[in-house]
Amino acid sequence: MRSAVHETEVDMARRTVHTRVSGVFHENAMRAWRATMHLHSSVPHLIAVWLVLLVGCGPSGRSATADGGEGCARNSDCGDDNPCTDDLCVEGSCTFEPNTASCDDGLTCNGTDVCESGECAHSGDPCSAPTHCDEQRDACIGCDADSDCPAPTHGEWSECTSDVICGETGTRSRAISRSACESGVCVEHAETETFPCARDTEGAACGAATACTEWSACEGFESACDETGVSTRTCTMNACAEGACVESTATETMDCMRETDAAPCGDPSCEAVGTCTFESTCDETGVQHMNCRPAPTCAEGVCTPGAVETRSEACSRDTDGVACAAETCGSYGACTYSSTCVTSGSRIRTCTWSTCAAGACGGTGSRVETDTTGCGRDTNGTRCNDGDPCTSLDRCSGGGCSGAYCTSCCG
Questions:
Q1: Which of 134-143, 194-203, 298-307 is the most confident on average?
Q2: Residue whose C-alpha is closest to residue 96's, from 112, 85, 105, 107
Q3: pTM: predicted TM-score of the whole model, two decimal places
Q4: Are 350 and 371 in contact (CB under 8 A)?
Q5: Nearest to 7 by CA among 183, 143, 142, 136
Q6: Rounded CA gap, 258 and 255, in Å?
Q7: pLDDT tens-digit profile of 225-240?
Q8: Residues with Cβ < 8 Å from 337, sequence gap 6 or more?
Q9: Nearest to 156 by CA among 140, 173, 180
């Protein structure tokens, strides 16, 4: 068994870690915690190292594929790696809306986890006096009777099912987890309860088609030249009605053809005005055309016009701010890093391009580009300060700062 001193240090470490990461624990950090808890003889030392690793390498809030303000075309372009937000692309920008999905911080002793306001929230200690929660066992310990253990929890009801295909009554079930006190430990036991239920089967299929009439004549053409129509027939089939399987009817359709070549198909007409065309990217005055045609006739199912008369008219547009020359980018500046031990940083450069102004390519545009791939470095062995007065000889390792435990440093 661990000593009382060790138990106190473990509890203090657990509370410190829980405060540091605000409810959402990194999966790798949780594996480190569980491994540390099983090494009883060196718990105080390992906890110190584990806390440093967690603080240096824990979740940073979110890591987005594109955050609000960056461009996106679809929801999949956005992502903040937070299970408690829905990643959405709204009018070209990423937004992250809080949801109420389930989440898991890897702990048992802070209760059931559910998303609230974009974070993984917890229902609180699942154990009540005289028991207390043991994180290693994932259980409440110290019970004398079943009544000392957590109350039963119930799962969602299953779909209502019946052995009768059109039956309107059936059964549904759900899982129940009950805790029983066994040798001072609250042990969960899974059960299933089943209750009667009602269901709506009206109109559900309960048999295959039995008989169909002959196909009708070809009809339902969309235009004078359309050569493809439909034929119909009526089929009798079975469907549920008031709890019984009864016959019903349905109409089926099939494509069919006719010949329309040379048939008249309309009056003389003019098409809509065409797209405005311009001589250059910045040109604000252009021309658009309109084609007028004589009475058309059918040809291979299409209403085909005769000779075309083209009419033209002027059109305009506003091109101010439109890019009119290739973008050029300067050199990247020096890399910057968030702390002494981190191994990756970022650097920036400015990119410029020409834009249209008053119909000519004379304006300018610019943007700042950030690069995070060219700033890697090796910090292993660099002097640092892990902020722990009980360690000495602090050095960078694996992107974090840690030191050797020093008994004399803590008085």
A1: 194-203
A2: 85
A3: 0.30
A4: no
A5: 136
A6: 11
A7: 999 999 999 988 888 9
A8: 344, 345, 375, 377
A9: 173
